[in-house]
């Protein structure tokens, strides 16, 4: 009996070790997949708070929760599609990545060009959702129907960003076994959705928290008041900083996807040149690795801006003619 129990415990321990190793593999693959999609993640975090501007503060978190739920459903549906593509038409992944990279480059370059021209960005949120946002912010009192329209518009836009995220993620771990691939993609979807919409919820409520601290202070010289006032004053700057970082990250990630895509299709001079430049500072003691990464990143970012400008300039010119 004791021998049988010992054998059973050994089996359980072996199963537990195998499960732990599998979880480590899944976590590692999900982390690798998520890191590469950071450009889209930052942009998503910067854009999403705009959807709840003008809402009753009590309705902000419920609406963000609805958008987050819709985003997760988007990602799960996309996972099925991209896994099917990876299994039956893997050759499509490179064109899809280049298409998504081109979209990122276009978005980033458009924002930079508008800034350089001193224009106020006319497309903080995609045009497809302007009607939803307008109807949802037209009055101080928002109906359930207006919130539904706003949430649906945000979820439609999220579908594009989620598609880019999941295709980029898949490309990073596509050589894994099917079971690990599925688990890692689902983990990536959960992780990124929680990261984006958790951050959005904090950002959206931070100024409300600051206002409550100001109201709770007995006088304006109190630390609570000064801290709350500081939060309220800082949030527009924080959002502007996130927007800038998101724009740079879009051109970096998008540029890398396009350059790598061309190399995969047989045209590698641009990628080879970036690698040559990045290799040069690698020998610098202590910071060589960072300088190499920074050079590669800046090279991809510049390529992303140039590539995106090829599409953004005609679009901006057409928009100017219309106005």
TrEMBL record:
Coiled coil: none annotated. The chain crosses the membrane at residues 76-94, 180-204, 225-253, 298-318. Keywords: Membrane, Transmembrane, Transmembrane helix. This is DNA repair protein MutK. It holds the Pfam family DUF808.
């Amino acid at each position: 009996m004791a021998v049988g129990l010992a054998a059973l415990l050994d089996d359980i321990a072996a199963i537990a070790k195998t499960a732990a190793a599998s979880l480590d593999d899944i976590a590692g693959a999900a982390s690798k997949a998520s890191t590469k999609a950071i450009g889209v993640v930052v942009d998503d975090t910067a854009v999403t708070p705009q959807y709840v501007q003008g809402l009753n503060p009590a309705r902000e978190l419920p609406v963000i929760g609805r958008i987050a739920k819709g985003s997760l459903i988007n990602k799960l549906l996309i996972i099925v599609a991209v896994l099917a593509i990876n299994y039956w038409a893997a050759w499509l992944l490179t064109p899809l990545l280049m298409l998504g990279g081109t979209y990122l480059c276009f978005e980033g370059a458009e924002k930079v060009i508008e800034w350089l021209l001193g224009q106020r960005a006319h497309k903080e949120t995609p045009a497809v959702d302007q009607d939803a946002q307008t109807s949802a912010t037209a009055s101080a009192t928002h109906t359930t129907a207006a919130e539904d329209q706003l949430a649906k518009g945000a979820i439609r836009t999220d579908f594009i960003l989620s598609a880019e995220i999941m295709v980029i993620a898949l490309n990073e771990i596509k050589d894994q076994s099917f079971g690990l691939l599925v688990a890692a993609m689902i983990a990536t979807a959960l992780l990124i959705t929680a990261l984006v919409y958790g951050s959005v919820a904090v950002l959206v409520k931070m100024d409300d928290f600051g206002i409550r601290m100001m109201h709770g202070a007995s006088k304006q010289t109190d630390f609570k008041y000064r801290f709350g006032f500081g939060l309220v004053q800082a949030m527009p700057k924080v959002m502007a900083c996130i927007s800038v970082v998101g724009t740079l990250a879009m051109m970096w990630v998008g540029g890398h996807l396009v350059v790598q895509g061309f190399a995969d299709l047989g045209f590698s001079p641009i990628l080879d040149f970036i690698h040559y430049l990045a290799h040069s500072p690698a020998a610098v003691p202590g910071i060589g690795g960072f300088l190499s990464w920074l050079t590669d990143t800046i090279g991809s970012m510049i390529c992303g801006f140039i590539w995106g400008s090829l599409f953004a300039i005609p679009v901006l010119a057409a928009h100017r003619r219309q106005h």
